[in-house]
Design brief:
The protein has 321 residues and is mainly alpha-helical. The chain contains 14 helices and no strands. Helices cover 80% and strands 0% of the residues.
């Protein structure tokens, strides 16, 4: 005898499917705020996993796919399912089974990464659309507009040529380091979605495992050795001219440089917190660090050395005994 789905589950599934569709369409068509709204898209699926089961969540996701496909097109429907739905199911199931915070974030990040790869393959193979090339075309247009603007401002041809070479080198780096950027985006998606889910679900009586406070974040020694491994690969490529190794080395270096920049910022956050600096001023300092390459590099090295020296204990030993 087949198991019947309770009426309450059907009603809630239909309602939350509609909410998923509204959120996803809003993320597509509302300028600026659409990006923020997109982080809410997996939330209805997470709620269904917690309140009911994965079957209800999956059926609701299928309904949402058909609704979005009818309203915005089948490719947008696939983006909704693979980009947000699978992440919602992965996080919902992991949270419901009471996995540790690290396990939840790892499962979510892997799911997000795989879904992005599938979206790229679907766009490339079925629709002859490469999302990476689309993004690069937009960057090329922005470069041309910027160069035209600077030309009208009176820059001489040599200065414009130097600026163009610099921008083209940045684009080339984006092409090479795309895998690392995809990993970072997947982790970021998971972190933000988990954080948003925790804030909203707490109002419904669900208490998710909290993050370690940012000012306490530190990288492990294994991250340092991974960073060093990337540097070694780059040195080997320099000597033997192996392009594949060069790409791998750049991606490893970029990925762990971002990690060490974040942990370096955590050290800065700890210092600012110790001296009770106002939140507004803290954010100004963080922004300055991000937009000034010299400061970003210095804070990255702070994150690297913090692995071995723990600046919090060195600077404030009484607080960390």
């Amino acid at each position: 005898m087949k198991e019947r789905i309770p009426t309450k589950s059907i009603v809630e599934g239909a309602f939350l499917s509609a909410i998923t569709v509204i959120l996803f369409l809003a993320s597509l068509y509302i300028p600026l705020f659409g990006t923020l709204i997109s982080f809410l898209c997996p939330l209805p699926i997470i709620i269904l996993c917690l309140r009911h089961n994965i079957k209800i969540a999956f059926l609701s996701l299928v309904i949402a796919f058909f609704l979005v496909s009818m309203l915005a097109g089948p490719f947008q429907g696939l983006i909704g399912v693979l980009g947000f739905g699978t992440l919602g199911i992965a996080l919902g199931v992991a949270i419901k089974r009471k996995f540790s915070l690290l396990e939840i974030l790892l499962i979510g990040s892997i799911t997000s990464f795989i879904s992005k790869i599938f979206l790229m393959l679907i766009g490339l193979w079925l629709m002859d659309v490469n999302p990476l090339l689309l993004g690069l075309e937009q960057i090329d247009q922005s470069i041309n507009q910027s160069l035209s603007f600077y030309g009208n401002m009176g820059l001489n041809p040599e200065q414009i040529a130097d600026l163009k070479n610099s921008l083209l080198q940045s684009v080339e780096l984006i092409k090479i380091a795309f895998p690392a950027m995809l990993v970072v985006a997947s982790v970021f998606d998971t972190l933000i979605n988990y954080w948003v889910a925790g804030k909203i679900l707490s109002r419904f009586g669900y208490h998710l495992a909290p993050f370690v406070p940012f000012y306490k974040w530190r990288a492990s020694k294994s991250f340092f050795w991974s960073y060093l491994f990337g540097l070694l690969i780059l040195l080997i490529n320099t000597k033997y001219n192996l392009p594949v190794l060069g790409r791998i080395g750049i991606n490893i270096q970029l990925l762990f440089s971002i990690i060490f920049l974040i942990t370096g910022l955590a050290v800065v956050s700890y210092i600012l917190r110790h001296y009770k600096v106002k939140s507004f001023l803290c954010w100004i300092i963080y922004i300055i660090i991000f937009i000034q390459p010299v400061f970003s590099l210095a804070i990255t090295w702070v994150g690297i050395f913090d692995v071995w020296f723990d600046f919090r204990k060195l600077l404030f030993p009484q607080e960390n005994n």
